Amino acid sequence: MLLIKNKCLRSFIRIFVPFILIPVITVAGALAFDEKKHIIIALAVAVSALLLFAAGFEKKSTGTRRMVIVAVMVALSFAGRFIPFLKPIAALTIITALYLGGEAGFLVGALSAVLSNFYFGQGPWTAFQMLAWGLIGLFAGILSEKLLGSRPLLLLYGALTGIAYSFIMDIWTVLWYNQGFDIKLYLAALVSAVPYTVSYAVSNVLFLFLLAKPFGEKLSRIKIKYGV
Amino acid sequence: MRSFSEYNPIVTAIWFFCVTGIAMFCNYPVLMLISLAGAIVFFIMRNGLSHGKTHLFFWILFAVLALANPLVSHNGKTVLFVMNHNPVTLEATLYGLNSAVMIIGVLYWFRSFTQIMTSEKLLYITGALSPKLSLILSMALRYVPLFSRQSAKISSAQKAMGLFSDDNIIDDLKGKSRIFSIMVTWALENGIITADSMEARGYGTGRRSQMRRFGFRGADIALLIASLLLFGITAAAVGTDSLSFEFYPALNAGAPDTLGILGIISYGLLIILPMIIETEVNLRWKYLRSGI
């Protein structure tokens, strides 16, 4: 990070944010604010998680080649968001994570969200979308050995993350609308979002089914050829 | 003489987050109405009366949001009428209306934000936070039009080779997926070449420079201080419960004390700031032109 040049300070942030700041925000927020202000806590946690990631990424000496490949994947999933009804972002994020690791997956998910929202409309939900898609990529990277080994497992992961993404974004919708969590409104939001949930799950499964193998071949070829 | 969108992007972004922050995290009806009115005026000032579809979409959403709460939530004392054995209460209706005002206001603000924060300014801000992320973002932005140009090239090459005809659906799909596959391979290879070229020219050896320089001028600092000050007063008023409004179980609006009134005034001023800047610029521009 350019703003934080001191190495000690940077590593301090890497430890401070996840193990102290986020729990403190959560606990203190739950105690200090009444139920109506939970949305502040949610947003603060989302933003600090993203900042933590940016700090960690900046510190690592990631090769230029790897970064450019990530940029290519971000551009592809950004372009894919223009396909009507189907949303390939999560599928491309998962594929990147499988072959280039969880960190690259996180980046592709989070950056595609922020970039494509310049076209589809930024909003307070951008931070949550970034975090949700980023985490889908991060977990795919962690589970990559198992997911690469079995195709049904990969498709199942795609379907589950599609549903989970929709459910998480609905929590945010309710928090924002009601300024507090309300189970009845949440259920209503879930029901009204069923078409979206189905479209997320179906497009994840469809695109993973269609693209996982060819993309995998191309990415591993690049990896072997250029040693990314 | 600069219009609001030409101020330093960091200052503009901070102003936006001050305005939307209050609008999102507070549910005091007066502040919500100020925010919605300001957002609409600001949007119309920048766009004139175009963007009819956006307005239509927002107001349909407004109606849906305002109606959702009284139909789902049955809190509140004053029952207006009973529908399907469920009471529809005055409090829940007003609460829904208030939430709808809040959400539509924030949506209008973010629409203007998207227009003002062009990708160039986004890169300026992310460049200050993290140069590497900024690089990936700027490359991805460049790749999107590049990909569409390249796939047009590949498609004409394939057609010239007689490899695909459009009249058969299966053939069409096969051809399109072949083009996509070629495009992806090309994109990845091209990316590697770009990376090597960047390194050969000394990427990462020094500080990155910006295409356009956004300096911090006197007016930027003044706008920044004014925004933070006004935001501070409003946040203090909201945080100390000077502005409290209870919807449930019955409407209960405590009269705002001095701090509360100050908070409302400063939020209004905060929202008017860019409009003053724009108006001043427009007037001066007219004056200068009339002098020619």
TrEMBL record, chain A:
Pfam families with a match to the protein in the record: ECF-ribofla_trS
Keyword Repeat: no
Domain of life per record: Bacteria
Keywords, sorted A to Z: Membrane, Transmembrane, Transmembrane helix
Organism: Ruminococcus flavefaciens 007c
Protein name: ECF transporter S component
InterPro entries: ECF_substrate-spec-like (IPR009825)
GO CC annotation, single: membrane
This protein's record includes keyword Transmembrane helix: yes
Transmembrane region(s): 12-33, 39-57, 69-102, 122-142, 154-177, 183-211
Automatic annotation (TrEMBL), chain B:
Superkingdom field: Bacteria
Location of the protein in the cell: Membrane
Transmembrane segments: 12-44, 56-72, 92-110, 219-239, 259-277
One GO term describing the cellular component: plasma membrane
Keywords annotated in UniProt: Membrane, Transmembrane, Transmembrane helix
Chief site of localization: membrane
Keyword Membrane in record: yes
InterPro entries, alphabetized: ABC/ECF_trnsptr_transmembrane
Flavoprotein among keywords: no
Signal peptide (UniProt feature, chain positions): none
Name of the protein: Cobalt transporter
Organism the protein comes from: Ruminococcus flavefaciens 007c
